[in-house]
């Protein structure tokens, strides 16, 4: 009995459908397993991006200068990650050829690359919202700033290494050689202080200032934009920390989020309480600085009024003397004419 032509066609169709169903189920299960066991390539998260998004969503809105600084800090973090992933890609390629790593690691790396590409596009689009064309310049600027921070770290590491070597020689009782080359200070020396301005131009935003801070972190009488308060800062770049009046240390870019706008909702209750306490203390210091500035302004106004009053009296006396002199001269001439 001859077989129908539809039998092989049905067999092939059944085989193809079975393979498609199996492939779909296998891919779905593989994706679920990868999602369950997925570990981000950068487990520390993206703090700079979270800070920028918090400032953008702040109510009242943060000043434009603060937003630009936060976006630039975000771009600097992306530049560091680009450099790290470029180095990791070469090492992973070598390990994959040797069979030391599996496909899951390469899949994680590929996913991290896509996330970083999306992050770069987001930063560029955000930069163009501030000024058209800034998106093409923000990453070169961030690269220069990252290189400058690396230079500063190397520069300060020289001083720390020298201090350690000097201490080691002193402990061993050996003579300490004198430095033949003195290291010149950098443009931004260590121990820089963060000043929170109280004037309307700053609107509570942080600004770097090199003025000396009064004892205890009190108010600065005359800041660049009016009265403000100065806080000590240690470290640089991502390791920079500002010490608040209650002893809490935070990143300088988080100052604006503390001074205005709601706090991030994912904070621990204890940390949120400390941040609220720091905000109240900073606001009290700002009010004190404003009161001192107003008192000084009132004193200056009184001094100005006194000086202007004395000047008016002097001018009036001079006018009287000037008017009296021609009158006496005229009288003398007339008397002389009568005698003649």
TrEMBL record:
Protein name per Swiss-Prot or TrEMBL: Related to SEC66-ER protein-translocation complex chain
Alphabetical UniProt keywords: Membrane, Transmembrane, Transmembrane helix
One Pfam family named in its UniProt record: Sec66
UniProt record, GO biological process: post-translational protein targeting to membrane, translocation
Source species, domain of life: Eukaryota
Composition bias type Pro residues, residue spans: 212-224
Any single GO CC term annotated in Swiss-Prot or TrEMBL for this entry: Sec62/Sec63 complex
Bias kind Low complexity: ranges: 198-211
Species this chain originates from: Ustilago hordei (Barley covered smut fungus)
Annotated stretches, region: Disordered: 191-240, 291-340
Residues that span the membrane, as ranges: 6-26
Biased segments, Basic and acidic residues type: 310-322
């Amino acid at each position: 009995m001859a077989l129908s032509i539809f039998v092989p066609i049905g067999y092939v169709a059944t085989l193809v459908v079975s393979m498609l169903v199996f492939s779909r189920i296998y891919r779905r299960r593989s994706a679920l397993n990868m999602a369950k066991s997925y570990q981000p390539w950068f487990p520390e998260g993206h703090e700079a991006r979270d800070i920028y998004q918090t400032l953008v969503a702040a109510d009242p809105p943060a000043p434009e200068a603060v937003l630009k600084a936060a976006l630039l800090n975000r771009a600097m973090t992306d530049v560091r990650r680009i450099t790290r992933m470029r180095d990791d890609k070469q090492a992973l390629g070598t390990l994959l050829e040797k069979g030391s790593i599996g496909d899951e690691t390469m899949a994680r790396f590929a996913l991290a690359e896509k996330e970083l590409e999306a992050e770069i596009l987001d930063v560029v689009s955000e930069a163009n919202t501030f000024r058209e064309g800034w998106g093409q310049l923000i990453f070169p600027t961030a690269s220069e700033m990252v290189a400058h921070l690396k230079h500063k770290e190397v520069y300060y590491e020289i001083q720390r290494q020298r201090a350690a070597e000097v201490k080691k020689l002193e402990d061993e009782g050996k003579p300490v050689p004198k430095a033949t080359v003195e290291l010149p200070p950098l443009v931004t020396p260590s121990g820089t202080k963060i000043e929170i301005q109280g004037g309307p131009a700053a609107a509570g935003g942080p600004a770097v200032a090199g003025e000396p801070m009064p004892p205890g972190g009190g108010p600065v009488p005359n800041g660049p934009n009016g009265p403000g308060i100065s806080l000590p800062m240690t470290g640089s770049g991502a390791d920079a920390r500002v010490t608040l009046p209650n002893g809490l240390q935070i990143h300088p870019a988080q100052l604006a989020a503390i001074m205005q706008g709601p706090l991030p909702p994912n904070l621990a209750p204890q940390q949120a309480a400390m941040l609220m306490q720091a905000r109240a203390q900073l606001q009290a210091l700002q009010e004190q600085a404003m009161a001192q500035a107003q008192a000084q302004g009132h004193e200056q106004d009184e001094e100005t009024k006194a000086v202007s009053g004395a000047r008016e009296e002097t001018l009036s006396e001079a006018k009287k003397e000037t008017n009296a002199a021609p009158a006496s001269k005229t009288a003398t001439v007339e008397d002389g004419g009568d005698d003649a």
